[in-house]
Design goal:
elongated
Length: 84
């Protein structure tokens, strides 16, 4: 039984050592391989997507401004009615 526990510990130790051998070099090698697989957008796609984002941001900003202004006005009217 003691031998089985020792064998298990040595196997775990060997597995950890194998993982360490890959280390940073393996990580960067795999990182480079993955970056080569990426399909980067064209300049025109980036410009179009940026335009869409700016338009949507403007529309949402104007909507939130209108809601905030309307609610502020409504709350101020309710307060003025209460103070009589």
């Amino acid at each position: 039984m003691a031998k089985d526990a020792k064998d298990t510990k040595s196997k775990k130790k060997d597995a950890k050592e194998e993982k360490k051998k890959g280390g940073a070099g393996k990580y960067f090698k795999e990182l480079r391989a993955e970056l080569k697989k990426v399909v980067w957008p064209t300049r025109q796609q980036v410009v179009n997507n940026t335009g869409v984002v700016l338009v949507v941001m403007s529309v949402v900003g104007l909507f939130l401004f209108a809601v905030d202004t309307g609610l502020s006005y409504a709350i101020s009217k309710l307060i003025s009615l209460g103070s009589g």
